[in-house]
Amino acid sequence: MNINTNLKAENTYDAIVIGSGISGGWAAKELTEKGLKVLMLERGMNIEHIKDYDSAMKAPWEFERAGKLTAEQKRTHPVQTRDYPYNEATEKWWVNDLDCPYTEDKRFDWYRGFHVGGKSLMWGRQSYRFSDHNFEDNAKDGYGNDWPIRYKDIAKWYDHVEKFAGISGQAENWPLLPDGKFLPPMDLNCVEKSVKERLEKHYNKTRILTIGRTANLTVPHKGRGSCQYRNLCSRGCPFGAYFSTQSSTLPAAMATNRLTVRPYSIVNHIIYDKETKKAKGVMVIDAETNETMEFYAKIVFVNGSTLGSTFILLNSTSEAHPNGMGNASGQLGHNLMDHPFRVGAEGSAEGFEDKYTYGRRANGIYIPRYQNMGNDKRDYLRGFGYQGGASRGSWHKEVAELAFGENFKNTMSLPADSWSMGLGGFGEMLPYYENKVYIDHNKKDKWGQSVLAIDCEYKENEAKMREDMMNDAAEMLEASGIKNVQPYDNDCYPGMAIHEMGTARMGNDPKESVLNRWNQMHEVNNVFVTDGACMPSSACQNPSLTYMALTARACDYAVKELKKGNI
Amino acid sequence: MNRREALKSVAFLMGSAISATTMGVLFENFVLPEKEKNFVSFSATDEQILSEFAETIIPTTASSAGAKAAGLGTFIPMIIRDCYPANFQKLFADGLKEMQIKCSEEFNKDFIAMSNEERNQLMSSLRDDAIATNKAPSFFLIARDLTILGYYTSEIGCTQAREYLPIPGRYDGNVPYIKDQKAWATN
């Protein structure tokens, strides 16, 4: 491609950020606020805050297609329809699977959203810190490589991102779940309070139950409105009450006047300069016109989502990097992880028939990991936490079988005669070298690019843990006075939790890892990867808050190094 | 949330009030092959019968209009044609015809001409059959399920039979339940 000098100057920035989701938004904010001129590239469409949340204010009966997804939507979204997230109200967030296929050596449900904001618009908002147990587990049991950082290295960056994003929660002083800079917690309901009291007493506080820590504002925060308790977050929040690129990081970055956002820009690869041994920019395919173009910068932040980022790195081959950029270790694409879930127990709470709820809380309870800690030893490594909650639905067990008529209607229009309470586990998956992704050159996407192949499975450690995830849930509910406790295991494949991470891990040893302790590529020092791809282990906590903190930390380092002339 | 998602959440809350057949259709995200879509068709008379059938399941009461006003006469056939696989569509359409034959044999008149009392007798008999066959998939079972789901996701069901609160503004998980207070329409 021939680029004249003027165009080259026009297409040159201090930094390029690939991706506009949770970590890309943070990179854009931090880098622009530190004075850099930044280009943020997003492969999908633009989504304007509030204006483009089409379904946000609709009542249940106001949707045009009064049935379900159309046959055409099912045809074009065979993966996205495998589970709950894709529906009429949220359809614009989820990708057309036929445009961007991938190869499943084993079943892997890959949920993707291509638009400005990425999965920051669609995420579950649960926000938990990792603890030193998590940073040390790899070194202790030998699975995966040692994290190159410890809690003290990241603590102040957790503070930094929490204070800006607005995380509500309750401090608990639990060793495996460090406290943060919280906004006031949401309330536990009456049944959850009772379960908490009985559970903590029964286990003598070796297990605790707390309200979910969530990126939903419980009070107005930095110009954003507080949660209105509609429980419709998945449609985009017209009050800006949950953290997203649109509600939070993008306005901050735009306010600096140093950010350019370019939607419909698919980064095909990072351009390597063999003279300087640095990245000199990126090659982009315009998603609408198929035109290719180049952009240049002093540093490149790769925030294209775990597997999106790794695809770009694997696809960035050159004489110096024949197997993908920064892949001398051979670890790029390996050690893919997710969180096994869809297993737990539920039952009914009696004695609360005179209580009800007001408002719909888009948050539940959390029981942080307690296994393989202190005297609690298990026959597998690592552990799991629970999310869950209590609610009063509208099921009436006293209604006669297959009843109908006036009495039936009157009863069904009332709340259920009892509350239900459930716990669902989220487990840690070990990093296995053989759980991997690679480029499949036999298949092409809509834009002529080769596609990713995914070869990943849960193994014995996860299977053993899964049994406890079910049995412990049932045991705790029974110990808390819950009746008719039913354990369940709805089966789970990697990808389903949408917590995919790993494949470009951090580490101290360039022979064993792709990135150093600053999320900086060992081999190409002006490339930083700060999304889920960087993770050496998965812990069992929801990971997004950690991506935010690692991103802000890496941005601070990158700008200092740039100013020192080291990059 | 689309209508089907609304149906799913209502169905989930209702637990065993809804049959396993319908739960399977709603919860298993199978893709209906194109040739199975609209496998059967429903006449204007069928829609009228389904409307009255639904009204017998969920009638107009002092508090709120019933299933007929909520548009169940067109909702039920639409869901049957769009969501249910061909074998269930056929089972449903055949069952509807059988019910009409039963009306002429046992009541000597059309379903539409039957009094409310006669319709209630007919329903009881269909219900007893369904229980006797251990809730095997049947016209009665599916039509009743869809009546309940469609009604409680309709505007009438949400705003009259139950209480719809679009913007609560706060959460309180420990409010006194006042006797006969309606259930919230959404969760």
Automatic annotation (TrEMBL), chain A:
The family this protein is said to belong to: Belongs to the GMC oxidoreductase family.
Lineage: Bacteria, Pseudomonadati, Bacteroidota, Flavobacteriia, Flavobacteriales
Cofactor: FAD
Coiled coil: none
Organism: Flavobacterium micromati
SUPFAM superfamilies tied to this protein: FAD-linked reductases, C-terminal domain, FAD/NAD(P)-binding domain
Residue ranges of domain Glucose-methanol-choline oxidoreductase N-terminal in the record: 95-340
Record GO terms (molecular function): flavin adenine dinucleotide binding; oxidoreductase activity, acting on CH-OH group of donors
Signal sequence, renumbered to the chain: none
InterPro entries: FAD/NAD-bd_sf, GMC_OxRdtase_N, GMC_OxRtase_C, P2Ox-like
Annotated keywords: FAD, Flavoprotein, Oxidoreductase
Domain Glucose-methanol-choline oxidoreductase C-terminal: 431-550
Name of the protein in question: Choline dehydrogenase
TrEMBL record, chain B:
Protein name: Gluconate 2-dehydrogenase subunit 3
UniProt superkingdom: Bacteria
Residue ranges crossing the lipid bilayer per the database entry: 12-32
Keywords: Membrane, Transmembrane, Transmembrane helix
Pfam short name (any one): Gluconate_2-dh3
InterPro entries linked: Gluconate_2DH_su3 (IPR027056)
